[in-house]
Each structure stands twice: as structure tokens, then as C-alpha cells.
Design a protein that fits this description.
single chain; Methane Monooxygenase Hydroxylase, Chain G, domain 1; Endonuclease, Chain A; 4 domains; 10-stranded mixed sheet; 8-stranded mixed sheet; about 35% helix
């Protein structure tokens, strides 16, 4: 069979939807705490929003009619997506209405309609509408002089149909009379229905608590239900005949031609503002709209029937995320688990002294991210530090990393920061930080034209005894974001390796100046050498297998879609290389096809934390090579991004990563295994001891810290 045969590949978009299905399974799983199930459901809704805003909009805009590697044209993909998403939405609302709502009621948490409220509850809601909501609402009529309003992206709206007045309304009509060669003004009567739109405000809570006589019960009503009950107040003199809830999802992909612009910062800022007005790619609609009103919507929004998703429940399930994470429901959430301190940095001494003696591996969120913050803060305050250079892809809104970099600049350090302005949906946050850093004297760079800078590198240049200049680094698989570090699994390496330091210096010279990359000593860098490096490593395993040497590949990543890499893996499998892939999301490779991929297994873990680390282990004839990277095996990572893969060379740390992977691959609680058709099934225990890898990673981190403290002179 040719390795280009479409039957060997799974469509990228459909594979992503299968990942979202795995998240949805966690919402159904009654072994998870109730509010965690609700949170998983909200995540699936948020994921679908982004999927439509970026992936579906890209397919709709595509001028390409050629099939993808799986044999599907853009039109085929859109049809398959529509069918699959409709099935998924049905499952979402079945989970919400039939499972989660009844489960909440058993916990004395009720989501009520207006008619279900007590007398006191109705009085409270009426007062809230009169004193607060009525002042905020703005009904927008639709008629000859007031066209259909532009509906903001992902905002819930109420579409209102009004009955004609009992007496026919009179309108003035201006017509040209050719016979008399003049304008004629006449009056006509009409009894056509009228329409209006009311946006459900976002400046007040969507889920409103309501008073109850039962102290042990919690009652809530949705904001839109309050508005629907009182909607007539906004249209005095008219009769409201129908209402429907409406939510539009719009194209939100930034389309920037970097070759044709003078200022990337200004262009990204302008494009962000335009997101709310992008073309509609999905319309979510509750029942109850009339046929004439539907025709009006179709004309006004420019959509066809395939973009309409009729919803049997409250629109926008993402609204339940804040509800699910409310501290008042702590008893229905995961028990908090504190990350362990990093054993090597447990003392109050300088981190530089520790790193100078040995490389240190950190595994978040099982180990505290504070060590990364401390590294930058120590560099900012250390009088011997001359310069700090760092890449920033996604940072938090209150970023202590950025604050430390600003402090470093104020302390006289030479600070250079590469901020990626095109980090999707974090652009505005990154722009704000970039402007603040520039004002503080930091040299801010916005990356290379046509490439996103996605690597995670922090380089500290320090003067030591006898004027020795030493470079200390943190290299990672995840972002410098202390907020996401609490629930993203990532790995970082602290080192002062001279070879790593030279490569890091070259990397920053390429990013900030006009330097051309020389031969890298340790790093593999996309889009220059990373693809070739990975392909050579896979090919070496293939050659080893053919020679009868030990040959295997164990790799962990977020996504696998690059065709060239997949074909190399197929060749390796055919040669007898045992390949185990742990892929959280998209996987376009089909595992288990006889004669092609029967030596390949694909697993996915969906659990409490988002699996985000990238680890690559090549057996190399019994002398394992282990790499960490910021890159997935996707075309975008290998072609259109600045990415770094780096080796872990310390024998103890290599063994630690190998053990980490073995533990993850032994998970029989939250790991799912892919069948050749791309459908995943739980690994299953089959009488074996339960292994939930994320919880065991926590235990390993706790034990490592306890052992370090017990053997410490201060223990």
C-alpha cells in the first residue's frame, strides 16, 4: 500500500472533534466531582467556539478545492464537521439537562424558571429588573429606517417578534410619477409584524442567585429568563408574540499580510477590534422563531441552513465555567492539591549555585512553578547579572514574570524580550505588556515576519569570579504563565551548559537581529533544522530495527498531523520499530493497520490537568536519546514557527523522563487507546491495580521532596 493512500490518514478537523468528545466523556463520568463535570462541559463548549472561529472559518474562506491527505475536500470536511458537531451538541445538552441539572438538584442546587420561583423570589427578580436591568437594556428595533443590528461575536441575544397594532399602521411612501414628472408622496397601511433585538447584557452575572426560604438550598435563575419574563416592558404599546434566543459565532482568525504592513503592533491591534464583526460561521438558535422571522435573519446575517444549530437548552454553556469554579461549591470540586517545591531548590541559597553544579528538571504542576518566577527574580536582583533575554508567547494578566523583567531593567540590567503578538486570543494581553515593558526600558522585539515565536527560552548572562561569563537558562515545553502552570502539565530544564548557552545566544541573535544561524551544537530549531532532526532520529530507529538492534520510539505531544513525519513513522513500524505515541488532541495517524502501523499504538490522556508537555525518546540501540521541545509534530510547528527541541543529557534526568513516560502509558483510569478508525476507548484495568498517572505524578513529586528534606542538614 502506498503511504500516500488517503485511507491511512484521519482528517485533522474530525480528529480534533474526537478529542473534544473525550473531554465530553469526562463531563458524563460520574466518578468526577459534580462541578468538575460541569467544568468539563463548559470546556467542550469553549473548545467548539474556538473551533468554529478559527478552523471552520478557515475552511469556509478556503479557495482550495484539492483534498487533504485523508481525501476530503474543504466542502467534504464542512459537511462531515456539521454532522459530527450536531451529534456532539445533542450529547452536550443531554448531559446538561438530563444528568448535570438533576445531579445539582440532588445537592439542593436548582436552576429555576420565573414561574417556579417563590413569591419572595419573584419579588426579588422583579426589583432586580426594575432597578438594574431595565437601565442597562437597549432594545434595537428593525424596520425601514433601522437595519438589522450587528450582533457581537458569541453574545446571547433575544430576537423579538411583535404583533401588528390592532389598527393598521400608516407609513409614508415616496414614489416617482413619470406621467406628471414629479415625486408623489402617499400613505400606505400595513399590518406586518415588527421585529427587534435585545442583547443579554454581559456586565451583570448570567446566573443570578435567588432568595429561598430553605437555608440549605441554593436557587438560581438565568438572566435571559428574567428578561424574557419582563420583555414586554421594553415594547410598551406592542404585543410580544414570539421570542427566541440567538447567538452568532464569527470568523475570528487574524488575517495579516506581514509583508505589506509597516507596523505589526498597530495592525494586530486593528485586527483584534475587527474580530467582533467577522462573518458569521455558526448561528445557535432556540426554538420558537417564525418562518418570516427566519427569512429576515437569513438575509440579515447572510447564512444558510447548514450554519444553524437549534439548541434545546440554555445557549452558551461556557457561562457555566465561573459557576462550576465558585468557591461555595468546593465540596463538589476536586480536592485542592498543592504542588511540591522543587527538591533541588528547597534551600534559600542562590539558584545559580545549584544550577552550576547540576542540571535540574522540573515537572509542573506537580512541582511548583515558583522556581521559574524565582529564577527571573533572582536574575533581576543579582548585581552580577548583566543581561536577561526571554521569549514570551502567552503570559497571565498579572504576570509576575513581566514584573520581574521590568524590575531587572530598572535595576540596570540589559533586558530583551521577544513578545509574540500573534499568540491566538492572547494578542491584546501581549500588546499591553509589550507597551508597558517598552516604557520601562526593556528592548521589546515582535518576532520574525511570517513566523510565530513559540519556543520557551529564558537566558541569563552572569559575571562570576575572575570575570568568567556564564550563561544560565530555563528551557521549557510550556508558557511562562503562572496561571496556566497550575493546570497544564509541562516540563522545564534549568542548565548552564556551555553548548546550550552558545545555542541560546545564537537563537536570540537570530530573533532580534539580522544574524544567520550557524551550526547548532545542541538545539534543533524550526523552521531551520527541527524537521530534519526528527526525521533523522526516526530513520535511525528504522535502520537499527532492520539491523536487529533494539529500536523503539516513545513520544508525547499535543498533536500529530504532519504527513512527512507520519510517513516516517509508518516506515519505522514496517521495519519493526515499536512506537508508542501519547497524543492529547489531534492525531492524523491511523494506528494498528496491518502491514503499515501494526507496531504503533496511540493513546490519549484527558484528566484533571491539560496534558501539554512534549517528550521524545529514541531507544538508539540501547543508548537512549531523550529530547524536550516546545513543538508538536504538526506542519505549523515545523514550518511556520520558531521552535526549539533540546536534548536531556544527564543520565539521571533521562531515566526520570523515561520513568515519567512509562507511568503515563500505564494509566488505566484516564488513558484512552485509539482504534484504526480513530475512535478511542478507555484502556481498562482488567483486574490490574488502578493507575491514574496524574495523581501518581503528584505522589512522586511529594515523595521526592520529602526524601530531599529528610536527608538535608536542615531536615
Amino acid at each position: 500500500m502506498s503511504l500516500t493512500d488517503p485511507s491511512l490518514y484521519i482528517n485533522r478537523e474530525l480528529s480534533w472533534l474526537e478529542f473534544n468528545e473525550r473531554v465530553l466523556e469526562e463531563a458524563h463520568d460520574k466518578n468526577n466531582p459534580l462541578m468538575e463535570r460541569l467544568k468539563f462541559l463548559a470546556i467542550t463548549a469553549s473548545n467548539l467556539d474556538e473551533f468554529f472561529m478559527i478552523r471552520v472559518s478557515s475552511l469556509l474562506r478556503s479557495q482550495n478545492t484539492a483534498p487533504d491527505p485523508s481525501g476530503l475536500t474543504p466542502r467534504d470536511q464542512l459537511a462531515a464537521i456539521s454532522k459530527r458537531v450536531r451529534e456532539m451538541v445533542q450529547k452536550q445538552y443531554s448531559c446538561f439537562m438530563r444528568s448535570l441539572i438533576p445531579a445539582m438538584e440532588k445537592e439542593n442546587i436548582s436552576i429555576l424558571t420565573y414561574s417556579q420561583l417563590s413569591v419572595a423570589g419573584k419579588q426579588q427578580v422583579d426589583t432586580y429588573f426594575n432597578k438594574v436591568l431595565y437601565q442597562v437594556l437597549t432594545p434595537m428595533a428593525i424596520d425601514q429606517s433601522r437595519p438589522f443590528p450587528t450582533l457581537n461575536n458569541r453574545m446571547v441575544n433575544i430576537f423579538v417578534e411583535l404583533a401588528p397594532s390592532k389598527e393598521a399602521s400608516t407609513i409614508r411612501v415616496v414614489e416617482w410619477d413619470e406621467r406628471e414628472v414629479r415625486w408623489r408622496i402617499s400613505e400606505k397601511t400595513t399590518k406586518s409584524p415588527k421585529y427587534a433585538v435585545v442583547q443579554v447584557p454581559t456586565v451583570v452575572p448570567r446566573i443570578v442567585p435567588v432568595v429561598t426560604d430553605d437555608k440549605n438550598a441554593r436557587h438560581y435563575i438565568l438572566l435571559e429568563n428574567i428578561l424574557l419574563e419582563h420583555i414586554g416592558r421594553l415594547f410598551i404599546g406592542h404585543t410580544v408574540t414570539r421570542t427566541a434566543l440567538l447567538r452568532v459565532t464569527r470568523n475570528s482568525d487574524l488575517e495579516i499580510d506581514e509583508e505589506e504592513i509597516d507596523d505589526l503592533l498597530d495592525e494586530v491591534t486593528r485586527s483584534i477590534r475587527g474580530r467582533r464583526w467577522g462573518s458569521p460561521v455558526r448561528i445557535e438558535l432556540s426554538r420558537g422563531i417564525s418562518k418570516p422571522a427566519m427569512r429576515l435573519l437569513e438575509k440579515a446575517l447572510g447564512f444558510t441552513e447548514d450554519k444553524i444549530f437549534e439548541i434545546k437548552g440554555p445557549l452558551d454553556l461556557t457561562a457555566w465555567m465561573n459557576f462550576a469554579t465558585d468557591p461555595d461549591f468546593a465540596h463538589l470540586q476536586y480536592e485542592p492539591i498543592m504542588p511540591s517545591p522543587v527538591p533541588d531548590f528547597a534551600s534559600r541559597g542562590s539558584m545559580f549555585d545549584v544550577i552550576r553544579k547540576k542540571d535540574v528538571l522540573v515537572h509542573h504542576p506537580y512541582m511548583s512553578f515558583d522556581c521559574v518566577l524565582r529564577f527571573v527574580r533572582e536574575a533581576a536582583e543579582d548585581p552580577n547579572v548583566l543581561a536577561i533575554k526571554q521569549t514570551l508567547y502567552r503570559v497571565s494578566g498579572q504576570s509576575p514574570i513581566v514584573r520581574a523583567l521590568i524590575q531587572a531593567a530598572e535595576n540596570g540590567k540589559q533586558v530583551t524580550v521577544l513578545v509574540e503578538l500573534k499568540a491566538r486570543f492572547d494578542e491584546e494581553n501581549n500588546i499591553n505588556w509589550a507597551k508597558l515593558m517598552e516604557k520601562s526600558g526593556i528592548h521589546v522585539v515582535y518576532g520574525l515576519t511570517g513566523l510565530k515565536t513559540h519556543c520557551k527560552v529564558c537566558l541569563v548572562v552572569r559575571r562570576e569570579k575572575k570575570d568568567i561569563i556564564r550563561r544560565y537558562m530555563h528551557l521549557g515545553t510550556g508558557n511562562y504563565n503562572e496561571a496556566t502552570a497550575k493546570f497544564y502539565t509541562d516540563i522545564g530544564l534549568f542548565t548552564c551548559s556551555e553548548a546550550f548557552g552558545q545555542d541560546a545566544s545564537v537563537l536570540f541573535n537570530v530573533l532580534t537581529g539580522h544574524a544567520k544561524a550557524t551550526d547548532w551544537q545542541k538545539f534543533a530549531v524550526a523552521p531551520l533544522t527541527l524537521r530534519n532532526s526528527f526525521e533523522l532520529l526516526i530513520q535511525q530507529e528504522t535502520a537499527n530495527a532492520l539491523e536487529g538492534k533494539p529500536a523503539s520510539i516513545t513520544a508525547k505531544m499535543n498533536s500529530l498531523s504532519d504527513v512527512a513525519i507520519i510517513q516516517e513513522l509508518y516506515k519505522a513500524s514496517q521495519a519493526g520499530v515499536k512506537i508508542r505515541l501519547l497524543v492529547r488532541g489531534i492525531c492524523c495517524l491511523r494506528a494498528g493497520i496491518p502491514g503499515v502501523s501494526d507496531n504503533i499504538t496511540v493513546s490519549s490522556i484527558v484528566d484533571r490537568y491539560l496534558e501539554h508537555s512534549r517528550i521524545f525518546i529514541f531507544e538508539n540501540g540501547g543508548q537512549p536519546k531523550v529530547f524536550l521541545s516546545s513543538a508538536d509534530w504538526m506542519g505549523r510547528n515545523l514550518k511556520r514557527r520558531i521552535e526549539v527541541a533540546f536534548p536531556v543529557e544527564d543520565a539521571a534526568l533521562k531515566n526520570e523522563l523515561i520513568a515519567l513516560m512509562e507511568l503515563s502509558l500505564s494509566d488505566n483510569i484516564k488513558r484512552r487507546i485509539a482504534a484504526p478508525d480513530g475512535i478511542y476507548q478507555k484502556a481498562g484495568r482488567k483486574g490490574r491495580t488502578a493507575v491514574q498517572s496524574q495523581m501518581m505524578h503528584h505522589k512522586r513529586a511529594e515523595d521526592a521532596y520529602a526524601a530531599a528534606v529528610s536527608t538535608s542538614p536542615l531536615g
